[in-house]
Amino acid sequence: MNLVIQSPVPLESVHHKPLLGLARGSRLTPIDEFALRIENAEPAQRGDLDVYCGTHELDYAFVEAGRTLRDFGLVAMDMDSTLITIECIDEIADFCGLKAEVAAITEASMRGEIKDFNESLTRRVALLAGLEASALERVYEERLRLSPGAENMLAGAKAAGLKTLLVSGGFTFFTERLKTRLGLDYTRANTLEIVDGKLTGRVTGEIVNADVKARTLAETCAQIGIEPSRAIAMGDGSNDLKMMGVAGLSVAFRAKPVVREAASVAFNFVGLDGLLRLF
After folding, report:
1. 236 is catalytic
2. pLDDT by residue (tens digit) across 10-49?
3. How many whole angstroms separate alpha carbon 172 and alpha carbon 187?
4. Is residue 118 included in any domain, yes or no?
5. Which of 100, 172, 254, 265 has the CA that lies 20 to 30 A from 37?
6. What is the pLDDT of residues 46-64, one digit of tens each?
């Protein structure tokens, strides 16, 4: 296995010797000023690496030697707090003075403390009833920001021949705009019901929960003719776990503890383009 170490700032050479020792690897090679690769590393050393890397705000990942990004055919991403920095429903709720209440439910749901995502979403959306639909446009224009490295990651994935899927427990209002803006291939999300220019407090159609996310990834893989083992799934919350479990490589991005523990790779400090340096 190769061990890839990444830093959000230039990686100082003072880290080289201790990291090589902790990994018990055979050779250390800088990838660029932000990352290095240690060959023949021992995954059993994760505990010590966790401590060292956490202390110095470094991200590490064990990657099978010889694996390339072109070995994959799809990168599937969650939207809220993964591809973008915000939780859209929390920001929408801010326009009706309920951000704190809605955000508390969102946080509990993403941490896995509320097991029924459908109930969680239904409760939060119900609180938005009566809000002018124009608030959605304001959230998109004024508050939605891409996560660090998002555009670089997508460009690198596309250059390697991967298709892109944005699959979200959020809303089509945002996923469709991001699809156009970023040139994404596929999207799946929930549709907010709007009547007479106002939110009704309901979503229409099947709710995109953990099971639907996993199914969407599998169906998209079938559509493009690859096995799910050739998919990469990126997410941050507990409703991403099943999708990440179906994929061949899972990336926890600034994620909740339950997701970091389950994922193949965790990016706690670097941007989404850390994916490219793994290979």
Report:
1. no
2. 999 999 999 999 999 999 999 999 999 999 999 876 888 9
3. 8
4. no
5. 254
6. 888 999 999 999 999 999 9
Question: Would you say residue 57 lies in a domain?
Answer: yes
CA dihedral 151, 102, 216, 227 (to 10 degrees): 60
> Residues 80, 90, 240, 273: which is the catalytic one?
80
E runs forming strands in the chain: 2-6, 27-32, 35-39, 59-63, 74-77, 163-171, 186-195, 198-204, 231-235, 249-253, 265-267
Please check whether residue 165 lies inside any domain of the structure. no
CB 92 within 8 A of CB 128: yes
The two structure tokens encoding residue 249? 């490589």
**Catalytic position from the list 78, 90, 240, 273:** 78
β-bridge partners, 186: 165
Could you tell me if 191 and 205 are in contact, meaning their C-beta atoms sit under 8 angstroms apart? yes
Q: In this structure, which amino acid lies at residue 158?
A: K
Residue 2's domain spans which residues? 1-66
Is 32 part of the annotated catalytic residue set? no
